[in-house]
Design goal:
Radius of gyration of chain B: 43 Å
CATH class of one domain in chain A: Mainly Alpha
Shape of chain B: rod-shaped
Largest interface: A-B, 56 and 40 residues
Distance between the termini of chain B: 133 Å
Largest sheet of chain B: none
Oligomer: heterodimer
Number of helices of chain B: 6
CATH architecture of one domain in chain A: Orthogonal Bundle
Distance between the termini of chain A: 66 Å
Radius of gyration of chain A: 20 Å
Order of helices and strands of chain B: HHHHHH
Strand content of chain A: under 5%
Structural class of chain B: mainly alpha
Helix content of chain A: over 70%
Helix content of chain B: 55-70%
Largest sheet of chain A: none
Amino acid sequence: MGNTTYLNGVQGARAQRRCASVDEKRLVKRLKRRDETAFNQLVRSHKGLVFNVCLRMLSNSAEAEDIAQDVFVRAFMSISSFRGDSKLSTWLYRIAVNLCKNRLKYHSRRKANAHTNIDDVVERSRASGCGRTTGEPNARPDEVLEGVRAEARVQRALMAVDEEFRRLLVLRDVHGLAYIDIMAITGLPEGTVKSRLHRARSALLKAYESDMKTHRHDNVS
Amino acid sequence: MTTSRNHIDASLTEMLDGQSPSTEVLDRAEKSGAVDIQRELGEARAGQDLLQKLTPQPVSAHFERKVQQRVRRRTGGRYYGQATTPFGFGVTIDAFVVLAVAIMAACWFLTQIPPHEVLFTDPPQVPIKPTP
């Protein structure tokens, strides 16, 4: 009985995946014909993911939105070159990550620190009521505030780690992408992704702890 | 050294993911004292847990409209294809344009050809008077 249920579940999952891939192929076909409704559908279904990747990479919501919009514009312009080897979402992620990388390079060249505007992200989460870690919709204001602060600390730590590490952390631990997708996005072999991910997590923890110490000192003084 | 360290790190990530890594590498590393597996795993898990605090942020309300504006601005409003099947028969709009032109041309030809009697007229019935 249990075995039958399991098999039904597996078959159901396979059928669902097949349906999704057929739907995606149809969507890509329509996109290549420059169908406006298909473009709107693509933006609607992927805007959240693309924006959040950019936000975590850049830590500035205005810039993240600018880049996210650019991701879709570029995707529209070069949809004819999409071969369908990877998922459409993976392709969008790759464009997003590359654009963020270019933007960070641009900032480092100009020695501008505009992308480390953590307060902007905090304000945004406060405004949307998302910056809580309690998981309760009716959390107390002090809990909400603590959640927002914790999120700001993590975001600061994320910005403190190397850009290469940050990319892997955002893709794997924030968005939960599979290794095969991360390999397609970054162009790194699986072993390298895993080893760097381990170092990235340790580096993040160290950055977080050092940030805690710094802010404790600031509060005391 | 670096290669073996890479192997160890990759195996630790696999372990954290709940996969069964090649324990041989980790055993050897632990015996040699090169790595404290429990400590490293703990750190990695703590780092992973930290990121769970990050919640997805909503996109601004006019995001789609702004993307559309950018696409149109960049292409001068010529990017999107026209509706290819206007009546759902799988016939392109071009076919309707050609058909319309053909009908108009036929009508024009039909109105331009003079009737038979105009082309072949009889000689005038009134006798021509000889000039004096």
